[in-house]
Amino acid sequence: MSTIQNAFQIVLLFFVLVTIHEWGHFYFAKRAGILVREFAIGFGPKLFSFKKGETRYTLRLLPIGGFVRMAGEDPEMIQIRSGQTIGVKLAHSQVTHIYVDQLQNLTDVTIGTVEQIDLEKGLFIKLNVNDEVRHLSVHPQAMMVSKGKETQIAPWDRQFGSKTVGQRALSIVAGPVMNFLLAFVLFIVVVFMTGIPDKVKVQGVIQGSPAEKAGLRAGDIIVSVNHEPIGSDSGKLTNLIRQSVNQPMVWVIERNKEQVRMEVTPEDKGNGGLVGVTLTLETRQASVMEGLRYGGINFVKASGSILDSFGKLVTLQFKMDDLGGPVRIVEFTSEQASAGLAQYIFWAGLLSLYLGIFNLLPFPALDGSRLVFLGFEAVRGKPVDPSRESMVHFVGFAMLMLLMIAVTYNDILRLMKG
User: Fold this and answer.
1) Could you list the active site residues?
2) Which class is domain 196-284?
3) Of 106, 210, 405, 415, which is most buried with the most CB atoms under 10 A?
4) Global pTM value
């Protein structure tokens, strides 16, 4: 596979996983009536940006996640106080723009001193213009302009905090849920691509082995051993062989659509019996119900494995080399992309599932922690102090970034050492 194609698949994987996660937050926030200021992929400086409707969509430099910035989550507006001089632009008797600086450069703007202002609930400004106090109505989508930059005001009913606990929880949990749905769909796609294991087939026979002496050939399908049907259970066949050292076994194989009976006697190689064959699975096309069933089985197994790894992390049963950051993820994604489309899609599903579970952990700055705070609010009947919650999330984010730096440094050292 070419380096360019490999790089494209890595970027595509990151973009899809983060976008589907953030879209979950975005969609349910919009449905709840929350003003979404920014939908961002990546962190750090902006590489590309455009605005559509009320939301600015940005692609940022550091490909380590994304975010949806909702009105009211963080301090975001310049506070206007009584006695401050501002400029306002009117349309149809409503304020559409509020200017807080560079007033001397403005035209077609009414300039005055603020006597009273409410941009959240009352949506009005009492403005003293040449000793005449004017009561001005403010449009709910009015723009605050500072240093030439426009920011849409957020009335209380458009802010995150104004919504019910259920609406806020749904807008938060929707991100991980979208990752779960994507993982499930991708696992199903892989089942349809690779098929359902149907029969155990002999892939190769070692020269001079018991299998060759008994007459087994590459391509033989193993129907039963010692009168036990094998089907697609290669593990069952392996166990039967190991348990039958120096004991003749009755094998029924299918060759050229005919069944042949033969005796195979496993040899003792110090780790149970061996007959000297390599096995592979013959597959068949999956039905719709089988696709759903086996996709679900892979989903559950992968979830269990991920949760087990997080359990070891919490109980400190790991070494630094067991952790992998962006560098190792890129490295492994490149390997999976080179292994074929089915392997690449399965890995994408696994990463999506990991991202969903990771974000639900009750660690500060993650979605799980925000859900914990909402749980406290539901029990107490009032929200946690927003400034304290923001500080907790800030500290958690800083800790995650430090861990990311440490893991990335370790990955780079590992690559340099080969």
Assistant:
1) 22
2) mainly beta
3) 210
4) 0.81
